Amino acid sequence: MTIHKAVIPAAGLGTRFLPATKSTPKEMLPVVDKPAIQYVVEEAVKAGLDDVLLITGRSKRTLADHFDAVPELEAALEAKGDLDRLAKVRESTDLGHVHFVRQGQPKGLGHAVLQAKHHVGHEPFAVLLGDDLIDERDELLSTMLALQERTGGSVIALLEVPPAQISMYGCAAVEPFDGAEGGDAADTVRITGLVEKPPADEAPSNLAIIGRYVLHPAVFEILENTAPGRGGEIQLTDALATLAELPASEGGGVYGVVFRGRRYDTGDRLDYLKAVVQIAVDRPDLGPEFRTWLGEFAQNLSTPQSD
Predict the structure, then answer these.
(1) Cα distance between residue 1 and residue 297, in whole Å
(2) If DSSP states are collapsed to H, E and C, what string results for 167-223?
(3) Euclidean distance between CA atoms 161 and 263, whole angstroms
(4) Residue 153: helix, strand or coil by DSSP?
Protein backbone atom coordinates (compact mmCIF):
# COMPACT_ATOMS: atom_id res chain seq x y z
CA MET A 1 0.00 0.00 0.00
CA THR A 2 1.44 3.37 -0.99
CA ILE A 3 1.49 5.80 1.93
CA HIS A 4 -0.05 9.15 1.08
CA LYS A 5 -1.23 10.69 4.37
CA ALA A 6 0.76 12.95 6.66
CA VAL A 7 -0.16 14.24 10.12
CA ILE A 8 1.43 17.43 11.46
CA PRO A 9 0.74 18.21 15.14
CA ALA A 10 0.50 21.98 15.52
CA ALA A 11 -1.50 22.58 18.70
CA GLY A 12 1.34 23.63 21.02
CA LEU A 13 1.18 26.94 22.87
CA GLY A 14 4.65 28.10 21.83
CA THR A 15 5.45 29.45 25.30
CA ARG A 16 9.19 29.60 24.60
CA PHE A 17 8.55 32.35 22.04
CA LEU A 18 6.29 34.59 24.12
CA PRO A 19 5.26 37.34 23.66
CA ALA A 20 5.57 36.81 19.87
CA THR A 21 3.28 33.77 20.09
CA LYS A 22 0.64 35.45 22.24
CA SER A 23 -1.55 35.86 19.15
CA THR A 24 0.56 34.26 16.42
CA PRO A 25 1.01 30.46 16.27
CA LYS A 26 4.66 29.47 16.64
CA GLU A 27 4.29 27.48 13.42
CA MET A 28 3.68 30.76 11.58
CA LEU A 29 6.93 32.38 12.71
CA PRO A 30 8.91 33.17 9.55
CA VAL A 31 12.04 31.29 8.58
CA VAL A 32 13.44 33.86 6.15
CA ASP A 33 10.24 34.55 4.16
CA LYS A 34 8.09 31.46 4.70
CA PRO A 35 6.42 30.28 7.91
CA ALA A 36 8.02 27.22 9.45
CA ILE A 37 4.89 25.13 8.87
CA GLN A 38 5.10 25.60 5.09
CA TYR A 39 8.55 23.99 4.96
CA VAL A 40 7.12 20.93 6.71
CA VAL A 41 4.10 20.63 4.42
CA GLU A 42 6.38 21.05 1.39
CA GLU A 43 8.57 18.21 2.67
CA ALA A 44 5.55 15.93 3.04
CA VAL A 45 4.24 16.71 -0.44
CA LYS A 46 7.67 16.25 -2.02
CA ALA A 47 7.76 12.73 -0.53
CA GLY A 48 4.41 11.91 -2.15
CA LEU A 49 2.18 12.63 0.85
CA ASP A 50 -0.47 14.82 -0.75
CA ASP A 51 -3.10 14.37 1.99
CA VAL A 52 -1.98 16.46 4.96
CA LEU A 53 -3.81 16.78 8.27
CA LEU A 54 -2.81 19.54 10.68
CA ILE A 55 -3.72 19.00 14.33
CA THR A 56 -4.43 22.50 15.64
CA GLY A 57 -5.82 24.17 18.73
CA ARG A 58 -7.34 27.44 19.89
CA SER A 59 -5.90 30.63 18.35
CA LYS A 60 -4.50 28.67 15.38
CA ARG A 61 -6.91 29.92 12.74
CA THR A 62 -4.13 31.64 10.80
CA LEU A 63 -2.72 28.22 9.94
CA ALA A 64 -5.82 27.44 7.91
CA ASP A 65 -5.79 30.93 6.42
CA HIS A 66 -2.22 30.49 5.21
CA PHE A 67 -3.09 27.41 3.15
CA ASP A 68 -6.26 28.98 1.78
CA ALA A 69 -6.59 31.23 -1.29
CA VAL A 70 -6.60 35.01 -0.82
CA PRO A 71 -8.48 36.32 -3.88
CA GLU A 72 -8.13 40.03 -2.99
CA LEU A 73 -4.36 39.82 -2.54
CA GLU A 74 -3.92 37.67 -5.62
CA ALA A 75 -5.99 40.07 -7.73
CA ALA A 76 -3.98 43.05 -6.49
CA LEU A 77 -0.66 41.38 -7.30
CA GLU A 78 -1.90 40.30 -10.72
CA ALA A 79 -3.11 43.83 -11.50
CA LYS A 80 0.33 45.20 -10.62
CA GLY A 81 2.03 42.59 -12.78
CA ASP A 82 3.89 41.27 -9.73
CA LEU A 83 3.85 37.69 -10.95
CA ASP A 84 6.79 36.50 -8.84
CA ARG A 85 5.06 37.38 -5.58
CA LEU A 86 1.77 36.08 -6.92
CA ALA A 87 3.39 32.70 -7.57
CA LYS A 88 4.81 32.65 -4.02
CA VAL A 89 1.41 33.46 -2.52
CA ARG A 90 -0.20 30.63 -4.48
CA GLU A 91 2.49 28.08 -3.55
CA SER A 92 0.98 27.30 -0.17
CA THR A 93 -2.55 27.06 -1.62
CA ASP A 94 -1.53 24.64 -4.36
CA LEU A 95 0.66 22.31 -2.27
CA GLY A 96 -1.86 19.54 -1.74
CA HIS A 97 -5.01 18.60 0.16
CA VAL A 98 -4.58 20.21 3.58
CA HIS A 99 -7.12 19.45 6.31
CA PHE A 100 -7.49 20.57 9.92
CA VAL A 101 -8.79 19.11 13.16
CA ARG A 102 -8.61 20.54 16.67
CA GLN A 103 -6.95 18.75 19.55
CA GLY A 104 -9.20 20.36 22.15
CA GLN A 105 -6.90 19.93 25.13
CA PRO A 106 -3.08 19.76 24.93
CA LYS A 107 -2.49 16.33 26.46
CA GLY A 108 0.78 15.51 24.73
CA LEU A 109 2.12 14.42 21.36
CA GLY A 110 0.53 10.97 21.62
CA HIS A 111 -2.87 12.54 22.23
CA ALA A 112 -2.37 14.88 19.26
CA VAL A 113 -1.58 11.96 16.94
CA LEU A 114 -4.64 10.13 18.25
CA GLN A 115 -6.85 12.94 16.90
CA ALA A 116 -5.93 11.77 13.39
CA LYS A 117 -7.45 8.31 13.84
CA HIS A 118 -10.67 8.88 11.90
CA HIS A 119 -8.93 10.72 9.08
CA VAL A 120 -6.15 8.15 8.67
CA GLY A 121 -8.24 5.02 9.10
CA HIS A 122 -6.38 1.72 8.69
CA GLU A 123 -3.47 2.98 6.59
CA PRO A 124 0.17 3.58 7.55
CA PHE A 125 0.85 7.30 7.77
CA ALA A 126 3.64 9.79 8.45
CA VAL A 127 3.95 12.22 11.35
CA LEU A 128 6.07 15.35 10.91
CA LEU A 129 6.77 17.72 13.77
CA GLY A 130 6.92 21.38 12.85
CA ASP A 131 9.86 22.16 15.13
CA ASP A 132 12.22 20.04 13.02
CA LEU A 133 13.00 21.31 9.54
CA ILE A 134 14.87 18.88 7.30
CA ASP A 135 16.93 20.40 4.50
CA GLU A 136 15.24 19.67 1.19
CA ARG A 137 18.59 18.56 -0.26
CA ASP A 138 18.85 15.66 2.21
CA GLU A 139 16.80 12.47 1.99
CA LEU A 140 15.00 11.31 5.10
CA LEU A 141 11.25 10.96 4.78
CA SER A 142 11.36 9.08 1.46
CA THR A 143 13.88 6.65 3.00
CA MET A 144 11.59 6.11 5.98
CA LEU A 145 8.55 5.54 3.77
CA ALA A 146 10.40 2.94 1.72
CA LEU A 147 11.57 1.15 4.88
CA GLN A 148 8.03 1.03 6.27
CA GLU A 149 6.72 -0.46 3.05
CA ARG A 150 9.41 -3.17 3.18
CA THR A 151 9.02 -4.07 6.84
CA GLY A 152 5.34 -3.36 7.44
CA GLY A 153 6.11 -1.92 10.88
CA SER A 154 6.77 1.61 12.09
CA VAL A 155 9.83 3.76 11.43
CA ILE A 156 11.31 6.63 13.43
CA ALA A 157 14.07 9.10 12.61
CA LEU A 158 17.12 9.10 14.86
CA LEU A 159 19.97 11.54 15.31
CA GLU A 160 23.28 11.04 17.11
CA VAL A 161 23.65 13.69 19.82
CA PRO A 162 26.30 14.31 22.47
CA PRO A 163 25.54 12.06 25.46
CA ALA A 164 25.08 15.11 27.70
CA GLN A 165 22.13 16.24 25.54
CA ILE A 166 20.21 12.97 25.35
CA SER A 167 18.04 13.92 28.36
CA MET A 168 16.37 16.51 26.09
CA TYR A 169 15.01 13.83 23.74
CA GLY A 170 13.31 10.51 23.50
CA CYS A 171 16.07 7.90 23.30
CA ALA A 172 16.25 4.58 21.43
CA ALA A 173 17.89 1.28 22.32
CA VAL A 174 18.83 -0.39 19.04
CA GLU A 175 20.34 -3.44 17.37
CA PRO A 176 21.70 -3.86 13.83
CA PHE A 177 19.17 -4.46 11.10
CA ASP A 178 20.26 -5.96 7.78
CA GLY A 179 16.97 -5.59 5.93
CA ALA A 180 17.83 -2.30 4.28
CA GLU A 181 17.83 -2.06 0.51
CA GLY A 182 19.24 0.62 -1.76
CA GLY A 183 21.03 2.44 1.04
CA ASP A 184 23.59 2.21 3.77
CA ALA A 185 22.46 -0.61 6.07
CA ALA A 186 24.58 0.88 8.88
CA ASP A 187 22.10 3.77 9.04
CA THR A 188 19.12 1.45 9.53
CA VAL A 189 18.48 -0.18 12.91
CA ARG A 190 15.84 -2.18 14.73
CA ILE A 191 14.41 -0.55 17.84
CA THR A 192 14.47 -2.75 20.95
CA GLY A 193 13.36 -0.13 23.47
CA LEU A 194 12.45 3.53 23.86
CA VAL A 195 12.53 5.89 26.81
CA GLU A 196 11.42 9.52 26.99
CA LYS A 197 14.09 12.04 28.12
CA PRO A 198 16.24 9.72 30.24
CA PRO A 199 19.03 10.99 32.51
CA ALA A 200 22.33 10.85 30.65
CA ASP A 201 23.67 8.06 32.85
CA GLU A 202 20.58 5.90 32.22
CA ALA A 203 20.23 6.42 28.45
CA PRO A 204 20.56 3.21 26.39
CA SER A 205 22.34 5.10 23.56
CA ASN A 206 23.05 8.56 22.21
CA LEU A 207 20.44 8.12 19.46
CA ALA A 208 17.76 10.76 19.89
CA ILE A 209 14.31 10.59 18.33
CA ILE A 210 13.68 13.56 16.07
CA GLY A 211 10.43 14.73 14.59
CA ARG A 212 9.76 12.31 11.74
CA TYR A 213 7.75 9.09 12.09
CA VAL A 214 6.06 6.63 9.74
CA LEU A 215 3.54 4.69 11.77
CA HIS A 216 1.48 1.54 11.48
CA PRO A 217 -2.20 2.28 12.25
CA ALA A 218 -2.02 -0.14 15.20
CA VAL A 219 -0.55 2.82 17.09
CA PHE A 220 -4.03 4.31 17.51
CA GLU A 221 -5.38 1.49 19.68
CA ILE A 222 -2.20 1.57 21.74
CA LEU A 223 -2.48 5.34 22.24
CA GLU A 224 -6.08 4.92 23.39
CA ASN A 225 -4.77 2.64 26.15
CA THR A 226 -1.57 4.50 26.99
CA ALA A 227 -1.60 6.15 30.41
CA PRO A 228 -0.11 9.62 30.84
CA GLY A 229 3.66 9.38 31.17
CA ARG A 230 6.41 11.93 31.59
CA GLY A 231 5.02 15.39 32.29
CA GLY A 232 1.54 13.95 32.82
CA GLU A 233 1.06 13.74 29.05
CA ILE A 234 0.26 10.87 26.68
CA GLN A 235 3.65 10.22 25.12
CA LEU A 236 4.03 8.89 21.59
CA THR A 237 7.36 7.42 22.69
CA ASP A 238 5.56 5.18 25.22
CA ALA A 239 3.18 3.89 22.53
CA LEU A 240 6.09 3.16 20.21
CA ALA A 241 7.84 1.24 22.98
CA THR A 242 4.76 -0.98 23.17
CA LEU A 243 4.68 -1.39 19.39
CA ALA A 244 8.32 -2.49 19.42
CA GLU A 245 7.36 -5.46 21.58
CA LEU A 246 4.42 -6.64 19.47
CA PRO A 247 4.69 -9.27 16.73
CA ALA A 248 4.49 -8.15 13.13
CA SER A 249 1.07 -9.83 12.80
CA GLU A 250 -0.29 -7.23 15.24
CA GLY A 251 1.38 -4.24 13.60
CA GLY A 252 4.48 -4.50 15.74
CA GLY A 253 8.10 -3.89 14.93
CA VAL A 254 9.78 -0.48 15.06
CA TYR A 255 12.81 0.48 12.98
CA GLY A 256 15.01 3.53 12.88
CA VAL A 257 16.78 5.56 10.22
CA VAL A 258 19.84 7.39 11.56
CA PHE A 259 19.81 10.79 9.87
CA ARG A 260 23.17 12.38 9.03
CA GLY A 261 21.94 15.35 7.01
CA ARG A 262 21.05 18.95 7.77
CA ARG A 263 18.36 19.54 10.37
CA TYR A 264 17.18 22.89 11.66
CA ASP A 265 15.57 23.14 15.10
CA THR A 266 13.04 25.97 15.26
CA GLY A 267 11.60 25.01 18.64
CA ASP A 268 14.19 26.92 20.68
CA ARG A 269 14.88 30.66 20.37
CA LEU A 270 18.63 30.36 19.86
CA ASP A 271 18.33 27.40 17.48
CA TYR A 272 15.57 29.24 15.61
CA LEU A 273 17.93 32.14 14.95
CA LYS A 274 20.62 29.71 13.80
CA ALA A 275 18.12 28.06 11.45
CA VAL A 276 17.19 31.39 9.85
CA VAL A 277 20.86 32.21 9.25
CA GLN A 278 21.73 28.74 7.92
CA ILE A 279 18.84 28.70 5.47
CA ALA A 280 19.37 32.32 4.39
CA VAL A 281 23.05 31.86 3.51
CA ASP A 282 22.13 28.99 1.16
CA ARG A 283 19.45 30.94 -0.68
CA PRO A 284 20.59 31.87 -4.21
CA ASP A 285 18.71 35.17 -4.06
CA LEU A 286 19.90 36.25 -0.61
CA GLY A 287 22.95 34.12 0.16
CA PRO A 288 25.80 35.92 -1.66
CA GLU A 289 25.05 39.36 -0.23
CA PHE A 290 24.07 37.98 3.17
CA ARG A 291 27.28 35.93 3.45
CA THR A 292 29.37 39.00 2.74
CA TRP A 293 27.57 41.03 5.38
CA LEU A 294 27.64 38.14 7.87
CA GLY A 295 31.41 37.74 7.46
CA GLU A 296 31.99 41.43 8.09
CA PHE A 297 29.63 41.39 11.06
CA ALA A 298 31.37 38.36 12.58
CA GLN A 299 34.78 39.98 12.07
CA ASN A 300 33.62 43.11 13.88
CA LEU A 301 32.39 40.97 16.76
CA SER A 302 35.86 39.52 17.23
CA THR A 303 37.59 42.91 17.00
CA PRO A 304 38.02 44.64 20.40
CA GLN A 305 36.02 47.83 20.53
CA SER A 306 37.92 50.98 21.44
CA ASP A 307 36.49 53.38 23.97
Answers:
(1) 52
(2) HHCEEEEEEECCCCCCCCHHHEEEEEEEEECCCHHHCCCCEEEEEEEEECCHHHHHH
(3) 12
(4) coil
Rg (Cα) of the chain, in Å, rounded? 20
Smallest Cα–Cα separation from 98: which of 131, 134, 69? 69
CA distance 12 to 108: 9
> Which domains are assigned to the chain?
1-138+270-286 (3.90.550.10), 143-260 (3.90.550.10)
* Backbone dihedral region for residue 14 (phi beyond 0: left; psi -120 to 50: alpha; all else: beta): left
Q: How far apart are CA 252 and CA 272, in angstroms?
A: 36
Of 95, 103, 93, whose CA–CA distance to 54 is shortest?
A: 103
Letter for the amino acid at 95?
Answer: L
Beta bridge mates, 134:
263
pLDDT tens-place values along the chain, 307 residues long: 589 999 999 988 788 898 988 888 899 999 999 999 999 999 999 999 999 999 998 888 899 999 998 999 999 999 999 999 999 999 889 888 999 999 888 788 999 999 999 999 999 999 999 888 999 889 899 999 999 999 999 999 999 999 999 988 889 999 988 755 444 445 899 999 988 888 988 889 999 999 999 999 999 999 999 887 777 788 898 999 999 998 888 888 999 999 998 999 888 899 999 999 999 999 999 999 999 999 999 988 876 665 5
* pTM of the predicted structure, to 2 decimals: 0.90
DSSP states along 52-90: EEEEE-TT-HHHHHHTS--HHHHHHHHHHT-HHHHHHHH
Phi-psi region of 192 (alpha: psi -120 to 50; beta: other; left: phi over 0): alpha
